[in-house]
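In the current project phase, the collection of sequences with tokenised folds has grown. One resulting record follows, to show the layout:
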Amino acid sequence: MKIGMIGLGKMGGNMVLRLTQGGQHVVGYDRTEANVANIEAQGAQGARSMDELIAALGEPGARAVWMMVPAGQITQAVIDDLASRLAPGDIIIDGGNSNFKDSKRRAEELAAKGIQFVDVGTSGGIWGLKEGYAMMMGGTVEAIERLRPVFEVLAPAPDRGWGRMGPSGSGHYVKMVHNGIEYGMMQAYAEGFELLGAKEEFGLDLAQIAELWRHGSVVRSWLLDLTAEALQSDASFHDLSDYVADSGEGRWTIIDSIELGVPTPVITLSTQMRFRSQQEVSYAGQMLSAMRRAFGGHAVKKLEVGKQESVVPSVKAGDHPSVASPQNIPTAAGRPDTGSVREAQELGEAGQQRVKGDA
């Protein structure tokens, strides 16, 4: 099957490579020339413009374009552009982490033009190229069946790791909750290992414990596998900031739990902990310190030098996942200049608000 891919970062680029290796005809486009050149160097077909991409996809009514771009206004802009170029019967796939309410609206607006829309919650990270991706789809049965050859190659196996969740919006809804669960699991592991490390009288080996738990323990998981590997490399993580980004799905999960009246205390608190990590200094903490001194005359600490951080860019499509291991994070002196919009979004600094489109 022939399909276009817009967005060739670490997820979209690796998906292009997995599809190409699986015998599918993919044409990839990205506004960054280096990303297009990267997939071409690894045997995939690149396009330098939207016009070139659409022209390479065949006859109107039988075309499909998959987007892997940041949620929000960028996704909306790409959809608006595609809607002006595509024809009835064509399919737009959003594999990013869009808000499910936006996906429901976009499906309705595109349906009025005869264009089908499939929202695909995609999980797998930088390991997806090797291991395959878990995909949760929302949309019509017809559109998803047309895309079956693509899903079967991207998934860990043709009959595992992918499926239709329901109507438009359901794929992104299931992925939203998936990411909320992920937040809670990550927070629990992090808290547990910090507690183990603080029990100095036992001299516990955190790497040994993580490796032991991987075999037979009820808390074993892929996240624990990655944790064990990281601990083998550097149990102190001394060069890492404690800044933890949130990409939006945790917030949306909490909002929907409130609207439905379903308690989600673990997901809520784990998301709040990410917000706390993103503060250079907590104003609330400073106020608590001031109040404690005011009523009790207690000693307090005064801030002398603020926290200084630098950004390590995300990995590129085709890179082996080991490049993301703690021991391979470059020192500040070896890091390239940064500050791109994409990195700000990955760090949770650009916001993930719902948007209205012109389609």
